[in-house]
Amino acid sequence: MKLRTMLAGTVFVVLAATSCAPGAGSEAPADTSGPVRTGVPDGDVTLSLVSTPESGAAVKAAIKAFEAQHPNVSIEYQDTNYDDYNKSLNLSLASDQAPDIALLNSVGTTVKDALVRDLTPYSKAYGWDKTYASTQLDQWRVDADGSTLGKGKLYAAPAGFSLVGVYYNKAKAAKLGITTPPATLAEFEAALAKAEKAGETPLQLGNAQGHASFPIQLIGQSLDGAEAAAKWTFGQKGTTFDTPGNRTAVGKVAEWADKGYLPESANGTDLQGAADKFTKGDGVFFVDGNWDAARIGEKLGEDAGFFAFPGRKATAIGTSVAYAVSSRTEHPDAAAAFLDFLRSPEASAAQFEAGFMPADVSAAKPEQGTVMADIVAAWSKVNTDNGLVGFNNNATATMNDRFTAATQELLAGKTDTAAFVKAIQDEWAATHG
Question: What is the mean pLDDT of the segment spanning 226-243?
Fold first, then answer.
């Protein structure tokens, strides 16, 4: 089973992509070195872009706005359902009919097989590092080995972000005298204790698919720092899951289960089942992503709140929708100009409308007093503190299976902190060494 983290229907998952290097007789990928030109070239240009229906909603609106500003450029859009898209992407990029621009859900072997273009020169020319926090761009940097993330050349540009933090029921918190949002882990634990004493479910949780990894990751990275935590998620050599923050996090979640802060049915409930319970009033707090904001806001109304997990700096779990440029494109400058447009006010507004967090926070204009207003405020803090970290479950193609088994054992009292940390690190080392 793979972790499927859904944002407005979008699915993020690490896949072991099939290697599809160009075969005999096929044209070699274009040289991507040398100087680049910014802006849209003169003359008529037609680009093709492939995506999935879920991620494509925002980009279709961006295409219309881009074409309106640049009438000499036409972008032909095509989407394919998520599973088929990922299975066929490498074959498509290696073919003579390769798209110019492609949604990149994971790096897979696209870089090793030279199927996508190095965007570092364009990033420097357009100043993308001045728009995007480093932890956001780093998710699409690939080292020379073709698989280690977080450093090296840049191979995709973001087009909207997911964000995992803490929802809470404002009415229940106020009734219990809980001050929100808590500023520290200790304050958060005190709130959980107060809720349990009052007979409420302190922290709603569904762990049938390993989502207890969310609170573990949030605690760990808030203590260790986003930069250090991200290096492990990226698979960088010399890093380890065995850190003070992660050990504390695993111990805390086990303690919360033992104290009754978590539902006894957590291991038999999936994330969406837990969300349903929370929207029906079962739970004071709930760790989840912005992909469930609409349903939580609709059901709880003004009682729905959200905050980034408490810590010295604001951190969150999340990743981006991202687009790459094919190595075979005949129009790299035009394709890169469109990727640059994805950070524009028009594209950012379309991303927010589709449920994503935009790089341009000013384009997110939620109704005041709503849970979306809280999410935008949290996103702004995370951006300021450079605190976005990719999903730990996606550190390897099989990591979510390991997290699911280990967290279920943890909640059932069948493992301890040392064994849990070792199991996760062993799984990581099998891929990253």
Answer: 95
